Amino acid sequence: VDWNVKLWDACSGTMLQTLEGHSRDVNAIAFSPCGKLLASGSSDRTIKLWDARSGTVLQTLKGHSSYINAVAFSPCGKLLASGSADGTAKLWDTHSGTVQQTLNGHLSSVRGVAFSPDGELLASGSGDGTVKLWDTHSGTVQQTLIGHLGPVKGVAFSPDGKLLASGS
């Protein structure tokens, strides 16, 4: 186990860079919409924001009390969502690195996060078998979707935002 992020040339398969900095497993990775930032979430309870070209750590985000399972950028790239084994999702300002919202309400680990295409909603899937839809401005739950018999490990919006998929 190397606890690193590796950047690869997708066409040639050549490894371009190794990003070192986490002290435990890297569980989640996401590029910002413009491709300039890379976020990595780890079992070390931190999220690192990297300059995707240079591989430099720009910020280390701390605030979850357990490991990070999921990260996702908002469509505009100004917010980063994280889901953690502490049962919360957080919305972070990608410029300042500060927490904008802490979303409490799941009874178990948050394992998946996804923004709606317009950035107005965040979906979070949890080990409690639920999906919650959050207003990204107020941090309030808009809906709780119940239907899975096991943990929800992934969530995704359709490109038009009319469908939400969840996987268990």
Report on this structure.
The protein has strands spanning 5-8, 15-19, 26-31, 37-42, 46-51, 57-62, 68-73, 79-84, 89-93, 99-103, 110-115, 121-126, 130-135, 141-146, 154-157, 164-167. It is mostly beta strands. It has a four-stranded antiparallel sheet with strand order 3-4-5-6, with no helix packed on it. A hairpin with a 4-residue loop joins β8 (79-84) and β9 (89-93). The radius of gyration is 15 Å and the shape is globular.
Short description:
By secondary structure, this protein is mainly β.
From the spread of the alpha carbons, the general shape counts as: globular
Instruction: Count helical runs.
Output: 0
Please provide the count of β strands: 16
What is the string of SSEs from the N terminus onward? EEEEEEEEEEEEEEEE
Radius of gyration over C-alpha positions, nearest whole angstrom:
15 Å
**Amino- and carboxy-terminal Cα gap:** 27 Å
Question: Overall mean pLDDT score?
Answer: 97
Strand arrangement, major sheet = 3-4-5-6
What low-confidence regions span 5 or more consecutive residues with pLDDT below 50? none
Major beta-sheet overview: 4 strands, antiparallel
Please indicate the percent range of residues in DSSP E strands (runs of 2 or more): over 45%
Structural class: mainly beta
Seen as an oligomer or otherwise, the chain set is: single chain
Proportion of residues in helical segments:
under 10%
